[in-house]
Design goal:
Radius of gyration: 13 Å
Strand content: under 5%
Structural class: mainly alpha
Shape: globular
Oligomer: single chain
Order of helices and strands: HHH
Number of helices: 3
Largest sheet: none
Length: 67
């Protein structure tokens, strides 16, 4: 049985547009940040509240990367 270690969830300092939330999620899951940005954008279409609140929640809870 092999164990894989994953980096802790942090907001990205290098791959950020607003606060690094999408970049941090992308680094954590190992995918392109474009997909998270698109997901938040789609969540903001029906009035903006679900996507904006989710992004704001991540911004407040997830710490910024140290490097």
């Amino acid at each position: 049985m092999t164990t894989t270690t994953r980096n802790p969830l942090r907001r990205s300092r290098h791959n950020c547009v607003v606060a690094g939330v999408c970049g941090g999620l992308a680094e954590f899951f190992g995918v392109n940040a474009f997909w998270f940005r698109l997901t938040f954008l789609i969540a903001m279409i029906p009035g903006g509240v679900p996507g904006f609140l989710t992004y704001l929640l991540f911004w407040l809870i997830v710490p910024k990367a140290n490097d």
